[in-house]
Amino acid sequence: MDGFHSNWTLPFFKVNKDKDYYIEDFEILTTILSALKWRQNNGRIKMVTDRRGANYYNKIGICSIWDLGIDDNLDDYIDNDIDSNIFWAAGKIYALRHQKVPCVMIDTDFIVWRSLKEKLVGMDICAIHKENISNEVYPDKSYFNMKESYKFDEDWDWSVLPSNTALTYISNDEFKKYYVNSSIKFMKGVAASSDRLVNMVFAEQRLFSICAEKMNKKSYEFMNLEDLTNGKQNYFSHIWGYKDVMRKDFKKRVQFCVKCIRRIIKDFPEYEGVIANVESLNRYYKIAKSN
């Protein structure tokens, strides 16, 4: 199975004005582990990014982790009228548009530790897990401020549970096109808004399930949320919720980064030199090698 990462760098500058582009140390490490573990257990993988992103990966020296290379055309894929502040994850939708199915979309903070072959037998579409509907995150359609030209499909079922798309498998091209086109149409249809959560998760996660329901395609989940987070499974790691912890607690950040480096060196010793040469990982590498 071919997988892909994606990284649209433009949203970075909406919240980091006047800064040079960078990726935080812990996410560099999860990106490396994510790519290498996918290659080890499941198939090939590429990075779909823009030219700024490709230059950054080349600068820090980790381009070799993607055996299918880097597609740096994301700037050309994304329409200019997409609000990069509100739709900060739109890059993955546009990246998906340009992938052949079957394919697996993987966030750079998500690691698949084992083969998914048996889990995907006979499936058309599958996301990591379903999410509960809450008014704070998944409000009713009356919440959205849409342009007059945009109309929600009256046949959409708003009661279906949204799908977290941090890990997403799609083998049906008809569904992929409908989902991507519906998401892009929605993003372009949103009028002035400052809500960076509700709009984005609708375009990315709720529409995934709504589109599946509309097309009579069952949307499976790799694992329910409780099983994913109870510490008893050994298939997946998703550090999304732990990022803020590491930003606030440097000790935990060090522990996490050192643990990742040791795992990379243990499982992929040929990449130790890559780790050693990434400047922002220097302090953690020295600790990892000292004990």
TrEMBL record:
<protein>
    <recommendedName>
        <fullName>DUF6734 domain-containing protein</fullName>
    </recommendedName>
</protein>
<dbReference type="InterPro" id="IPR046621">
    <property type="entry name" value="DUF6734"/>
</dbReference>
<feature type="domain" description="DUF6734">
    <location>
        <begin position="16"/>
        <end position="272"/>
    </location>
</feature>
<dbReference type="Pfam" id="PF20508">
    <property type="entry name" value="DUF6734"/>
</dbReference>
